[in-house]
Design brief:
The protein has 629 residues and is α/β, with parallel strands linked by helices. The strands form five sheets. The protein has a 14-stranded mixed beta sheet, with no helix packed on it. Strands 1-2-4-3 form a four-stranded mixed beta sheet, sandwiched between helices. α10 (264-270) packs parallel to α11 and α19 (478-484) runs parallel beside α20 (501-507). The longest helix is centred in the N-terminal third of the chain and has 15 residues, at 5-19. It is globular and about 75 Å long.
Length: 629
Protein backbone atom coordinates (compact mmCIF):
# COMPACT_ATOMS: atom_id res chain seq x y z
CA UNK A 1 0.00 0.00 0.00
CA UNK A 2 1.43 3.44 -0.90
CA UNK A 3 2.68 5.52 2.01
CA UNK A 4 1.58 9.17 2.31
CA UNK A 5 2.42 12.12 4.56
CA UNK A 6 -0.07 10.99 7.22
CA UNK A 7 1.56 7.57 7.32
CA UNK A 8 4.96 9.21 7.70
CA UNK A 9 3.67 11.29 10.61
CA UNK A 10 2.12 8.30 12.39
CA UNK A 11 5.27 6.27 11.91
CA UNK A 12 7.33 9.15 13.33
CA UNK A 13 5.04 9.78 16.32
CA UNK A 14 4.37 6.18 17.34
CA UNK A 15 7.88 4.94 16.65
CA UNK A 16 9.16 7.56 19.09
CA UNK A 17 7.03 5.94 21.80
CA UNK A 18 8.35 2.52 20.82
CA UNK A 19 11.96 3.65 20.81
CA UNK A 20 11.82 5.08 24.34
CA UNK A 21 9.96 2.07 25.73
CA UNK A 22 6.68 3.84 26.49
CA UNK A 23 3.95 1.21 26.65
CA UNK A 24 1.00 2.25 24.50
CA UNK A 25 -1.99 1.11 22.48
CA UNK A 26 -2.91 2.64 19.15
CA UNK A 27 -6.57 3.64 19.26
CA UNK A 28 -8.98 5.96 17.50
CA UNK A 29 -9.02 6.13 13.72
CA UNK A 30 -5.96 3.95 13.15
CA UNK A 31 -7.56 1.12 15.12
CA UNK A 32 -10.75 1.71 13.16
CA UNK A 33 -8.74 1.21 9.95
CA UNK A 34 -7.55 -2.16 11.23
CA UNK A 35 -11.23 -3.11 11.38
CA UNK A 36 -11.74 -2.09 7.79
CA UNK A 37 -13.45 1.29 8.11
CA UNK A 38 -12.05 4.13 5.94
CA UNK A 39 -10.05 6.87 7.64
CA UNK A 40 -10.67 10.48 6.56
CA UNK A 41 -9.30 12.70 9.34
CA UNK A 42 -5.70 13.87 9.78
CA UNK A 43 -5.14 12.92 13.41
CA UNK A 44 -4.25 9.83 15.41
CA UNK A 45 -4.75 8.64 18.98
CA UNK A 46 -2.84 6.43 21.39
CA UNK A 47 -3.42 5.42 24.99
CA UNK A 48 -0.13 5.63 26.92
CA UNK A 49 0.64 3.83 30.17
CA UNK A 50 2.99 6.21 31.94
CA UNK A 51 4.22 7.19 35.39
CA UNK A 52 3.56 10.56 36.99
CA UNK A 53 6.65 12.20 35.49
CA UNK A 54 6.64 10.66 32.00
CA UNK A 55 4.11 12.98 30.30
CA UNK A 56 6.46 15.88 31.02
CA UNK A 57 9.26 13.94 29.31
CA UNK A 58 7.00 13.19 26.33
CA UNK A 59 6.18 16.88 25.92
CA UNK A 60 9.84 17.84 26.07
CA UNK A 61 11.00 15.13 23.69
CA UNK A 62 8.24 15.93 21.19
CA UNK A 63 9.42 19.54 21.09
CA UNK A 64 13.00 18.34 20.57
CA UNK A 65 11.90 15.99 17.78
CA UNK A 66 10.40 18.82 15.76
CA UNK A 67 6.75 18.75 16.80
CA UNK A 68 4.90 22.04 17.07
CA UNK A 69 4.48 22.00 20.83
CA UNK A 70 3.66 24.85 23.17
CA UNK A 71 4.92 23.21 26.30
CA UNK A 72 2.94 25.44 28.68
CA UNK A 73 -0.29 24.77 26.78
CA UNK A 74 0.28 21.01 26.76
CA UNK A 75 1.05 20.96 30.48
CA UNK A 76 -2.28 22.65 31.09
CA UNK A 77 -4.05 20.27 28.73
CA UNK A 78 -2.46 17.34 30.52
CA UNK A 79 -3.58 18.68 33.90
CA UNK A 80 -7.17 19.31 32.82
CA UNK A 81 -7.86 16.46 30.37
CA UNK A 82 -5.19 13.82 30.87
CA UNK A 83 -3.98 14.26 27.29
CA UNK A 84 -0.99 15.61 25.45
CA UNK A 85 -1.46 16.81 21.87
CA UNK A 86 1.44 16.77 19.44
CA UNK A 87 1.27 18.50 16.05
CA UNK A 88 3.39 18.40 12.93
CA UNK A 89 2.12 20.33 9.96
CA UNK A 90 -1.44 19.28 9.17
CA UNK A 91 -1.35 16.25 11.43
CA UNK A 92 -1.74 15.68 15.14
CA UNK A 93 -1.75 12.86 17.66
CA UNK A 94 -3.48 12.80 21.06
CA UNK A 95 -1.66 10.80 23.74
CA UNK A 96 -4.26 9.85 26.34
CA UNK A 97 -2.97 8.70 29.73
CA UNK A 98 -4.52 5.38 30.74
CA UNK A 99 -6.70 5.25 33.84
CA UNK A 100 -9.66 2.95 33.19
CA UNK A 101 -9.68 -0.76 34.12
CA UNK A 102 -10.28 -2.15 30.63
CA UNK A 103 -7.35 -0.20 29.21
CA UNK A 104 -4.87 -2.20 31.28
CA UNK A 105 -6.65 -5.43 30.38
CA UNK A 106 -6.64 -4.48 26.70
CA UNK A 107 -2.90 -3.80 26.86
CA UNK A 108 -2.20 -7.24 28.27
CA UNK A 109 -4.02 -8.84 25.37
CA UNK A 110 -3.04 -6.49 22.58
CA UNK A 111 -2.51 -7.75 19.07
CA UNK A 112 0.02 -6.53 16.53
CA UNK A 113 -0.90 -5.18 13.10
CA UNK A 114 1.02 -3.32 10.44
CA UNK A 115 -0.06 0.22 9.70
CA UNK A 116 1.83 3.06 8.01
CA UNK A 117 4.70 0.74 7.13
CA UNK A 118 5.41 -0.31 10.73
CA UNK A 119 3.98 -2.82 13.19
CA UNK A 120 2.12 -1.43 16.20
CA UNK A 121 0.12 -2.76 19.16
CA UNK A 122 -3.66 -2.46 18.85
CA UNK A 123 -6.38 -3.51 21.31
CA UNK A 124 -7.42 -7.13 20.90
CA UNK A 125 -10.75 -7.20 19.11
CA UNK A 126 -10.02 -4.03 17.14
CA UNK A 127 -11.30 -5.81 14.04
CA UNK A 128 -14.79 -5.32 15.46
CA UNK A 129 -14.17 -1.88 16.87
CA UNK A 130 -15.79 -0.03 14.01
CA UNK A 131 -19.28 -1.36 14.77
CA UNK A 132 -21.69 1.51 14.19
CA UNK A 133 -23.69 1.02 17.36
CA UNK A 134 -20.73 1.80 19.63
CA UNK A 135 -21.21 5.54 19.56
CA UNK A 136 -24.68 5.27 21.00
CA UNK A 137 -23.71 2.81 23.73
CA UNK A 138 -20.24 3.85 24.91
CA UNK A 139 -19.97 5.61 28.25
CA UNK A 140 -18.23 8.94 27.95
CA UNK A 141 -15.00 9.85 29.65
CA UNK A 142 -14.28 13.10 31.46
CA UNK A 143 -10.68 13.25 32.53
CA UNK A 144 -9.48 14.32 35.93
CA UNK A 145 -5.84 15.51 36.22
CA UNK A 146 -3.29 13.15 34.71
CA UNK A 147 -2.59 11.14 37.87
CA UNK A 148 -6.06 11.50 39.38
CA UNK A 149 -8.48 8.59 39.63
CA UNK A 150 -10.85 8.31 36.67
CA UNK A 151 -14.37 9.69 36.92
CA UNK A 152 -17.14 8.73 34.50
CA UNK A 153 -19.98 11.22 34.02
CA UNK A 154 -22.67 10.23 31.56
CA UNK A 155 -24.20 13.43 30.22
CA UNK A 156 -20.93 15.20 29.50
CA UNK A 157 -18.79 14.13 26.58
CA UNK A 158 -15.19 15.04 26.12
CA UNK A 159 -14.90 14.96 22.30
CA UNK A 160 -11.14 14.67 22.40
CA UNK A 161 -11.33 11.44 24.39
CA UNK A 162 -14.03 9.91 22.22
CA UNK A 163 -11.87 8.17 19.58
CA UNK A 164 -10.00 6.11 22.16
CA UNK A 165 -13.20 5.29 24.01
CA UNK A 166 -14.92 4.32 20.77
CA UNK A 167 -12.36 1.60 20.22
CA UNK A 168 -11.49 0.55 23.76
CA UNK A 169 -14.98 0.38 25.27
CA UNK A 170 -15.84 -2.32 22.71
CA UNK A 171 -12.96 -4.54 23.61
CA UNK A 172 -14.52 -6.22 26.62
CA UNK A 173 -16.00 -8.81 24.27
CA UNK A 174 -12.61 -9.41 22.69
CA UNK A 175 -10.37 -9.61 25.72
CA UNK A 176 -10.31 -13.40 25.72
CA UNK A 177 -8.53 -13.53 22.36
CA UNK A 178 -5.00 -13.51 23.82
CA UNK A 179 -2.50 -16.22 23.01
CA UNK A 180 -2.93 -19.53 24.81
CA UNK A 181 0.23 -21.19 23.58
CA UNK A 182 2.35 -22.55 26.41
CA UNK A 183 6.05 -22.20 27.00
CA UNK A 184 8.20 -25.24 26.28
CA UNK A 185 8.42 -27.40 29.41
CA UNK A 186 12.20 -27.75 29.20
CA UNK A 187 12.83 -24.00 29.45
CA UNK A 188 13.04 -22.34 32.87
CA UNK A 189 10.55 -19.65 33.83
CA UNK A 190 13.40 -17.21 34.42
CA UNK A 191 14.56 -16.70 30.85
CA UNK A 192 17.92 -15.34 32.04
CA UNK A 193 18.78 -18.86 33.20
CA UNK A 194 18.59 -20.22 29.66
CA UNK A 195 22.17 -20.99 28.62
CA UNK A 196 21.50 -22.42 25.17
CA UNK A 197 18.62 -22.12 22.74
CA UNK A 198 17.67 -24.07 19.64
CA UNK A 199 15.50 -22.74 16.82
CA UNK A 200 12.59 -24.87 18.06
CA UNK A 201 12.98 -23.67 21.64
CA UNK A 202 13.21 -20.06 20.54
CA UNK A 203 10.01 -20.47 18.52
CA UNK A 204 8.20 -21.98 21.50
CA UNK A 205 9.56 -19.31 23.80
CA UNK A 206 8.27 -16.49 21.62
CA UNK A 207 4.81 -18.03 21.53
CA UNK A 208 4.50 -16.98 25.16
CA UNK A 209 7.32 -15.86 27.39
CA UNK A 210 7.33 -14.34 30.88
CA UNK A 211 7.32 -10.61 30.22
CA UNK A 212 10.10 -8.92 32.18
CA UNK A 213 10.24 -5.30 33.32
CA UNK A 214 13.72 -3.82 32.97
CA UNK A 215 14.79 -0.49 34.55
CA UNK A 216 16.45 1.79 32.06
CA UNK A 217 17.71 5.31 32.63
CA UNK A 218 19.15 7.92 30.31
CA UNK A 219 20.14 11.38 31.46
CA UNK A 220 17.75 13.95 30.08
CA UNK A 221 15.08 11.29 29.60
CA UNK A 222 14.87 10.02 33.16
CA UNK A 223 14.30 6.59 34.71
CA UNK A 224 12.08 4.33 32.67
CA UNK A 225 10.70 0.85 33.05
CA UNK A 226 10.85 -1.06 29.78
CA UNK A 227 7.94 -3.47 29.78
CA UNK A 228 7.31 -6.71 27.96
CA UNK A 229 11.03 -7.35 27.51
CA UNK A 230 12.60 -10.65 26.47
CA UNK A 231 15.71 -11.09 28.60
CA UNK A 232 18.11 -13.86 27.60
CA UNK A 233 21.23 -12.71 29.39
CA UNK A 234 22.36 -16.26 30.15
CA UNK A 235 23.15 -17.01 26.50
CA UNK A 236 26.88 -16.89 25.75
CA UNK A 237 26.43 -17.39 22.03
CA UNK A 238 23.64 -17.62 19.50
CA UNK A 239 23.62 -19.10 16.00
CA UNK A 240 22.23 -17.22 13.01
CA UNK A 241 19.03 -19.29 12.68
CA UNK A 242 18.10 -18.86 16.34
CA UNK A 243 18.98 -15.17 16.15
CA UNK A 244 16.64 -14.85 13.18
CA UNK A 245 13.77 -16.30 15.23
CA UNK A 246 14.47 -13.99 18.18
CA UNK A 247 14.65 -10.96 15.89
CA UNK A 248 11.27 -11.89 14.45
CA UNK A 249 9.61 -10.65 17.64
CA UNK A 250 9.87 -6.99 16.74
CA UNK A 251 7.69 -5.70 19.57
CA UNK A 252 9.67 -6.74 22.66
CA UNK A 253 12.96 -5.11 23.72
CA UNK A 254 15.58 -7.87 23.42
CA UNK A 255 18.37 -8.23 26.00
CA UNK A 256 21.27 -10.53 25.09
CA UNK A 257 23.84 -9.09 27.47
CA UNK A 258 25.49 -12.46 28.07
CA UNK A 259 26.77 -12.85 24.50
CA UNK A 260 30.56 -12.75 24.42
CA UNK A 261 30.86 -13.39 20.69
CA UNK A 262 28.77 -12.50 17.67
CA UNK A 263 29.27 -13.82 14.17
CA UNK A 264 28.56 -11.72 11.11
CA UNK A 265 25.62 -14.00 10.23
CA UNK A 266 24.06 -13.75 13.70
CA UNK A 267 24.57 -9.98 13.63
CA UNK A 268 22.73 -9.78 10.30
CA UNK A 269 19.82 -11.71 11.78
CA UNK A 270 19.61 -9.63 14.98
CA UNK A 271 19.75 -6.43 12.96
CA UNK A 272 16.23 -7.20 11.73
CA UNK A 273 14.91 -6.58 15.26
CA UNK A 274 13.09 -3.25 15.38
CA UNK A 275 13.14 -2.39 19.08
CA UNK A 276 15.84 -2.02 21.72
CA UNK A 277 18.65 -4.53 21.18
CA UNK A 278 21.09 -4.83 24.07
CA UNK A 279 24.41 -6.60 23.48
CA UNK A 280 26.35 -5.21 26.43
CA UNK A 281 28.35 -8.41 26.98
CA UNK A 282 30.37 -7.97 23.81
CA UNK A 283 33.81 -6.50 24.48
CA UNK A 284 34.97 -6.56 20.87
CA UNK A 285 33.16 -6.20 17.57
CA UNK A 286 34.51 -7.19 14.19
CA UNK A 287 34.21 -4.81 11.28
CA UNK A 288 31.86 -7.28 9.58
CA UNK A 289 29.56 -7.63 12.60
CA UNK A 290 29.53 -3.84 13.02
CA UNK A 291 28.51 -3.40 9.39
CA UNK A 292 25.69 -5.92 9.85
CA UNK A 293 24.40 -4.29 13.05
CA UNK A 294 24.34 -0.91 11.30
CA UNK A 295 21.15 -2.10 9.56
CA UNK A 296 19.37 -2.24 12.94
CA UNK A 297 16.68 0.46 13.23
CA UNK A 298 15.99 0.51 16.99
CA UNK A 299 18.00 1.44 20.08
CA UNK A 300 21.36 -0.37 19.97
CA UNK A 301 23.34 -0.89 23.19
CA UNK A 302 26.99 -1.95 22.86
CA UNK A 303 28.16 -0.69 26.22
CA UNK A 304 30.66 -3.53 26.77
CA UNK A 305 32.76 -2.74 23.71
CA UNK A 306 35.94 -1.08 24.99
CA UNK A 307 37.67 -0.34 21.71
CA UNK A 308 36.54 0.05 18.12
CA UNK A 309 38.66 -0.21 15.05
CA UNK A 310 38.35 2.70 12.68
CA UNK A 311 36.57 0.35 10.28
CA UNK A 312 34.03 -0.75 12.90
CA UNK A 313 33.45 2.88 13.90
CA UNK A 314 32.87 3.80 10.26
CA UNK A 315 30.38 0.93 9.92
CA UNK A 316 28.46 1.73 13.13
CA UNK A 317 28.22 5.37 12.11
CA UNK A 318 25.74 4.16 9.47
CA UNK A 319 23.42 2.74 12.15
CA UNK A 320 19.86 3.40 10.99
CA UNK A 321 18.30 3.78 14.43
CA UNK A 322 18.07 6.94 16.49
CA UNK A 323 19.96 5.57 19.51
CA UNK A 324 23.56 4.28 19.56
CA UNK A 325 25.12 3.57 22.95
CA UNK A 326 28.88 2.93 23.16
CA UNK A 327 29.45 3.71 26.83
CA UNK A 328 32.22 1.15 27.34
CA UNK A 329 34.75 2.91 25.16
CA UNK A 330 37.40 4.64 27.27
CA UNK A 331 39.38 6.08 24.38
CA UNK A 332 38.44 7.35 20.96
CA UNK A 333 40.86 7.91 18.14
CA UNK A 334 40.54 11.05 16.08
CA UNK A 335 39.63 8.89 13.07
CA UNK A 336 36.93 7.01 15.00
CA UNK A 337 35.54 10.33 16.29
CA UNK A 338 35.38 11.61 12.71
CA UNK A 339 33.52 8.46 11.66
CA UNK A 340 30.99 8.46 14.51
CA UNK A 341 30.28 12.15 13.94
CA UNK A 342 28.58 11.08 10.70
CA UNK A 343 25.95 9.08 12.59
CA UNK A 344 22.46 10.29 11.71
CA UNK A 345 20.67 9.22 14.86
CA UNK A 346 19.53 11.61 17.56
CA UNK A 347 21.26 9.90 20.52
CA UNK A 348 24.99 9.14 20.49
CA UNK A 349 26.26 8.05 23.90
CA UNK A 350 30.01 7.92 24.60
CA UNK A 351 29.88 8.14 28.39
CA UNK A 352 32.92 5.89 28.88
CA UNK A 353 35.37 8.43 27.50
CA UNK A 354 37.44 10.00 30.26
CA UNK A 355 39.49 12.24 27.98
CA UNK A 356 38.82 13.89 24.65
CA UNK A 357 41.43 15.46 22.43
CA UNK A 358 40.86 18.92 21.05
CA UNK A 359 40.85 17.43 17.55
CA UNK A 360 38.21 14.83 18.45
CA UNK A 361 36.09 17.51 20.16
CA UNK A 362 36.23 19.66 17.06
CA UNK A 363 35.35 16.67 14.90
CA UNK A 364 32.32 15.78 17.04
CA UNK A 365 30.83 19.19 16.35
CA UNK A 366 29.91 17.71 12.96
CA UNK A 367 27.46 15.33 14.66
CA UNK A 368 24.01 16.55 13.60
CA UNK A 369 21.95 14.54 16.08
CA UNK A 370 20.36 16.24 19.05
CA UNK A 371 21.92 14.41 21.98
CA UNK A 372 25.66 13.89 22.48
CA UNK A 373 26.51 12.17 25.77
CA UNK A 374 30.04 12.70 27.12
CA UNK A 375 29.31 12.22 30.82
CA UNK A 376 32.55 10.33 31.47
CA UNK A 377 34.77 13.33 30.84
CA UNK A 378 36.19 14.59 34.14
CA UNK A 379 38.19 17.42 32.59
CA UNK A 380 37.76 19.47 29.46
CA UNK A 381 40.22 21.86 27.91
CA UNK A 382 39.07 25.34 27.07
CA UNK A 383 39.62 24.59 23.38
CA UNK A 384 37.52 21.41 23.54
CA UNK A 385 34.76 23.25 25.43
CA UNK A 386 34.75 26.00 22.84
CA UNK A 387 34.54 23.45 20.03
CA UNK A 388 31.70 21.43 21.59
CA UNK A 389 29.74 24.60 22.27
CA UNK A 390 29.45 25.13 18.52
CA UNK A 391 27.43 21.98 17.86
CA UNK A 392 24.28 23.75 16.63
CA UNK A 393 20.92 25.06 17.74
CA UNK A 394 19.26 21.62 17.96
CA UNK A 395 21.89 20.08 20.18
CA UNK A 396 21.82 18.85 23.75
CA UNK A 397 25.26 18.50 25.32
CA UNK A 398 25.79 16.20 28.30
CA UNK A 399 28.92 16.85 30.38
CA UNK A 400 27.82 15.70 33.83
CA UNK A 401 31.16 14.04 34.59
CA UNK A 402 32.84 17.41 35.06
CA UNK A 403 33.35 17.99 38.77
CA UNK A 404 35.10 21.33 38.46
CA UNK A 405 34.67 24.13 36.00
CA UNK A 406 37.16 26.90 35.46
CA UNK A 407 35.84 30.36 34.77
CA UNK A 408 37.30 30.19 31.24
CA UNK A 409 35.66 26.82 30.51
CA UNK A 410 32.34 28.11 31.85
CA UNK A 411 32.61 31.10 29.54
CA UNK A 412 33.34 28.81 26.59
CA UNK A 413 30.41 26.48 27.32
CA UNK A 414 28.08 29.45 27.78
CA UNK A 415 28.42 30.02 24.03
CA UNK A 416 26.46 26.82 23.46
CA UNK A 417 23.32 27.85 21.60
CA UNK A 418 21.70 24.43 21.56
CA UNK A 419 18.67 23.24 23.46
CA UNK A 420 20.14 21.91 26.69
CA UNK A 421 23.44 21.93 28.54
CA UNK A 422 23.87 19.34 31.32
CA UNK A 423 26.54 19.95 33.99
CA UNK A 424 25.09 17.84 36.78
CA UNK A 425 28.46 16.74 38.19
CA UNK A 426 29.33 20.17 39.59
CA UNK A 427 28.75 20.42 43.34
CA UNK A 428 30.13 23.96 43.59
CA UNK A 429 30.13 26.90 41.25
CA UNK A 430 32.15 30.07 41.53
CA UNK A 431 30.33 33.37 41.23
CA UNK A 432 32.32 34.09 38.04
CA UNK A 433 31.35 30.74 36.49
CA UNK A 434 27.72 31.33 37.49
CA UNK A 435 27.82 34.74 35.84
CA UNK A 436 29.13 33.17 32.62
CA UNK A 437 26.59 30.33 32.59
CA UNK A 438 23.77 32.79 33.21
CA UNK A 439 24.40 34.01 29.67
CA UNK A 440 23.85 30.55 28.18
CA UNK A 441 21.34 30.96 25.35
CA UNK A 442 19.98 27.41 25.26
CA UNK A 443 16.53 26.30 26.32
CA UNK A 444 17.72 24.64 29.51
CA UNK A 445 20.69 24.62 31.87
CA UNK A 446 20.95 21.66 34.24
CA UNK A 447 23.06 22.04 37.40
CA UNK A 448 21.49 19.33 39.54
CA UNK A 449 24.74 18.58 41.38
CA UNK A 450 24.83 21.91 43.22
CA UNK A 451 23.88 21.52 46.88
CA UNK A 452 24.19 25.18 47.85
CA UNK A 453 23.79 28.44 45.99
CA UNK A 454 24.98 31.87 47.02
CA UNK A 455 22.67 34.81 46.48
CA UNK A 456 25.23 36.23 44.01
CA UNK A 457 25.29 33.01 41.98
CA UNK A 458 21.47 32.84 42.12
CA UNK A 459 21.25 36.38 40.77
CA UNK A 460 23.55 35.47 37.88
CA UNK A 461 21.80 32.21 37.01
CA UNK A 462 18.43 33.98 37.09
CA UNK A 463 19.53 35.75 33.90
CA UNK A 464 19.27 32.44 32.04
CA UNK A 465 16.23 32.61 29.75
CA UNK A 466 15.41 28.92 29.62
CA UNK A 467 14.66 26.13 32.09
CA UNK A 468 16.92 26.14 35.13
CA UNK A 469 17.39 22.78 36.86
CA UNK A 470 18.72 23.02 40.43
CA UNK A 471 17.32 19.80 41.85
CA UNK A 472 20.36 19.13 44.03
CA UNK A 473 19.80 22.14 46.28
CA UNK A 474 18.80 21.03 49.77
CA UNK A 475 18.45 24.53 51.19
CA UNK A 476 17.52 27.88 49.71
CA UNK A 477 18.16 31.15 51.48
CA UNK A 478 15.56 33.89 51.38
CA UNK A 479 18.02 36.06 49.44
CA UNK A 480 18.68 33.35 46.83
CA UNK A 481 14.93 32.77 46.47
CA UNK A 482 14.39 36.49 45.90
CA UNK A 483 17.03 36.42 43.16
CA UNK A 484 15.69 33.29 41.49
CA UNK A 485 12.22 34.85 41.43
CA UNK A 486 13.50 37.16 38.69
CA UNK A 487 14.10 34.14 36.44
CA UNK A 488 11.50 33.82 33.68
CA UNK A 489 11.94 30.22 32.50
CA UNK A 490 11.02 26.96 34.21
CA UNK A 491 12.55 26.61 37.68
CA UNK A 492 13.11 23.12 39.11
CA UNK A 493 13.96 22.86 42.83
CA UNK A 494 12.90 19.30 43.59
CA UNK A 495 15.71 18.63 46.06
CA UNK A 496 14.41 21.10 48.65
CA UNK A 497 12.74 19.41 51.61
CA UNK A 498 11.76 22.62 53.39
CA UNK A 499 10.97 26.14 52.27
CA UNK A 500 10.64 29.20 54.46
CA UNK A 501 7.56 31.35 54.23
CA UNK A 502 9.64 34.28 52.97
CA UNK A 503 11.26 32.16 50.26
CA UNK A 504 7.86 30.81 49.16
CA UNK A 505 6.44 34.32 48.94
CA UNK A 506 9.44 35.39 46.87
CA UNK A 507 8.90 32.50 44.46
CA UNK A 508 5.28 33.59 44.08
CA UNK A 509 6.69 36.44 41.96
CA UNK A 510 8.23 33.96 39.52
CA UNK A 511 6.47 34.03 36.14
CA UNK A 512 7.63 30.68 34.79
CA UNK A 513 6.86 27.09 35.74
CA UNK A 514 8.01 26.01 39.23
CA UNK A 515 8.54 22.49 40.56
CA UNK A 516 9.08 21.71 44.27
CA UNK A 517 8.11 18.05 44.40
CA UNK A 518 10.59 17.10 47.17
CA UNK A 519 9.13 19.17 50.02
CA UNK A 520 8.49 17.04 53.11
CA UNK A 521 7.23 19.75 55.47
CA UNK A 522 5.30 22.97 55.00
CA UNK A 523 4.44 25.80 57.35
CA UNK A 524 1.21 27.73 56.89
CA UNK A 525 3.16 30.72 55.55
CA UNK A 526 5.08 28.55 53.08
CA UNK A 527 1.89 26.82 51.93
CA UNK A 528 0.21 30.19 51.40
CA UNK A 529 3.14 31.47 49.36
CA UNK A 530 3.38 28.24 47.38
CA UNK A 531 -0.32 28.25 46.51
CA UNK A 532 0.15 31.74 45.09
CA UNK A 533 2.88 30.64 42.65
CA UNK A 534 0.99 31.00 39.38
CA UNK A 535 2.67 28.17 37.47
CA UNK A 536 3.62 25.81 40.28
CA UNK A 537 2.85 22.27 39.10
CA UNK A 538 1.02 21.34 42.33
CA UNK A 539 3.04 18.15 42.85
CA UNK A 540 4.22 17.26 46.40
CA UNK A 541 5.58 13.75 46.04
CA UNK A 542 7.12 13.47 49.55
CA UNK A 543 4.71 15.32 51.82
CA UNK A 544 3.40 12.48 53.97
CA UNK A 545 1.94 14.07 57.09
CA UNK A 546 -0.23 16.98 58.23
CA UNK A 547 0.62 16.70 61.91
CA UNK A 548 2.02 20.11 62.86
CA UNK A 549 -0.05 22.48 65.08
CA UNK A 550 -0.85 24.62 62.03
CA UNK A 551 -1.81 21.63 59.80
CA UNK A 552 -5.38 22.87 59.26
CA UNK A 553 -4.03 26.23 58.12
CA UNK A 554 -1.57 24.44 55.81
CA UNK A 555 -4.42 22.41 54.28
CA UNK A 556 -6.57 25.53 53.91
CA UNK A 557 -3.78 27.40 52.13
CA UNK A 558 -3.07 24.52 49.72
CA UNK A 559 -6.77 24.17 48.96
CA UNK A 560 -6.76 27.70 47.54
CA UNK A 561 -4.37 26.71 44.75
CA UNK A 562 -5.79 27.09 41.26
CA UNK A 563 -5.16 23.83 39.49
CA UNK A 564 -4.62 20.21 40.55
CA UNK A 565 -2.87 19.33 43.80
CA UNK A 566 -1.10 15.95 44.06
CA UNK A 567 -0.26 14.39 47.43
CA UNK A 568 0.40 10.72 46.57
CA UNK A 569 2.56 10.06 49.69
CA UNK A 570 0.02 11.27 52.26
CA UNK A 571 -0.19 8.92 55.26
CA UNK A 572 -1.10 10.90 58.39
CA UNK A 573 -3.66 13.66 58.74
CA UNK A 574 -6.26 14.89 61.22
CA UNK A 575 -9.98 14.81 60.33
CA UNK A 576 -10.25 18.62 60.30
CA UNK A 577 -7.23 19.03 58.04
CA UNK A 578 -8.56 16.40 55.64
CA UNK A 579 -12.01 18.00 55.55
CA UNK A 580 -10.46 21.37 54.69
CA UNK A 581 -8.16 19.81 52.08
CA UNK A 582 -11.09 18.08 50.39
CA UNK A 583 -12.81 21.38 49.80
CA UNK A 584 -10.54 21.25 46.76
CA UNK A 585 -12.09 18.49 44.66
CA UNK A 586 -9.17 18.23 42.25
CA UNK A 587 -6.80 17.12 44.99
CA UNK A 588 -5.18 13.71 44.54
CA UNK A 589 -4.62 11.70 47.72
CA UNK A 590 -4.38 7.97 48.52
CA UNK A 591 -7.54 6.07 49.41
CA UNK A 592 -9.00 7.41 52.66
CA UNK A 593 -9.06 3.91 54.12
CA UNK A 594 -5.24 3.80 53.92
CA UNK A 595 -4.75 7.03 55.87
CA UNK A 596 -3.89 7.18 59.55
CA UNK A 597 -6.08 9.70 61.36
CA UNK A 598 -4.25 11.55 64.11
CA UNK A 599 -5.66 13.71 66.93
CA UNK A 600 -5.98 17.36 66.08
CA UNK A 601 -2.39 18.66 66.47
CA UNK A 602 -3.58 21.98 67.91
CA UNK A 603 -5.28 20.19 70.80
CA UNK A 604 -8.85 20.85 69.70
CA UNK A 605 -11.54 18.17 69.84
CA UNK A 606 -11.03 15.35 67.38
CA UNK A 607 -14.18 14.42 65.48
CA UNK A 608 -15.03 11.55 63.19
CA UNK A 609 -14.37 12.10 59.51
CA UNK A 610 -17.38 11.73 57.23
CA UNK A 611 -16.39 10.93 53.69
CA UNK A 612 -18.17 13.14 51.09
CA UNK A 613 -20.38 11.36 48.58
CA UNK A 614 -18.35 12.57 45.61
CA UNK A 615 -15.15 11.18 47.15
CA UNK A 616 -16.80 7.90 48.06
CA UNK A 617 -17.83 7.40 44.43
CA UNK A 618 -14.38 8.32 43.16
CA UNK A 619 -12.68 5.87 45.51
CA UNK A 620 -15.11 3.13 44.56
CA UNK A 621 -13.97 3.44 40.98
CA UNK A 622 -10.32 3.45 42.04
CA UNK A 623 -10.79 0.18 43.90
CA UNK A 624 -12.46 -1.34 40.85
CA UNK A 625 -9.57 -0.23 38.69
CA UNK A 626 -7.04 -1.77 41.06
CA UNK A 627 -8.93 -5.04 41.17
CA UNK A 628 -8.39 -5.53 37.44
CA UNK A 629 -4.64 -4.92 37.54
Amino acid sequence: MPQGPFDDFCRFALASLDDRGTRHLVSGGLAVMVGGEPRTTLDADAVVFVSLAEPEVLIRQAAEAGCEVREDVERQRRASTGKVRLRRGRFQIDLITASLPFEEAASRRASVHERCGRRFRFPAGAVRAWAAEVDSQAASRVRAPVSSPPRVMKPAMNPLARPALRVLALLVSGLSLGSTAGQADELPVDTNKIESLTVEQATALLAKFPEANVPFEIEGVGPQTLRQCLTLNGLKSVDAKTAEVLAGDRISPLFLDGLVELSEEAAKALAQHKRLLSLNGLTTLSDEAAKALAEHMGLLCLNGVTTLSDGAATALAQHKGDWLFLNGMTTLSDAAAEALAQNRGDYLSLNGLTTLSDVAAKTLTQYKGQNLYLNGLTTLSDAAAEALAKRGDRSCLYLSGLTTLSDATAKALAQHNGKRLYLNGLDTLSDAAAKALGQHNGRALSLNGLTTLSSEAAESLAQHKGGLFLNGLTTLSNEAAESLAQHTGGLFLNGLTTLSGAAAKSLAKHKGAVSLAGLTTLSADAAEGLAAVEKWDGILLRLSAFDSPDSVAVARALATRKGPLLLPALKKISPKALSVLLEKKDVEIPLVETLEFVPEPDGSTTEDFIIPEWLEEREKQRRAARATE
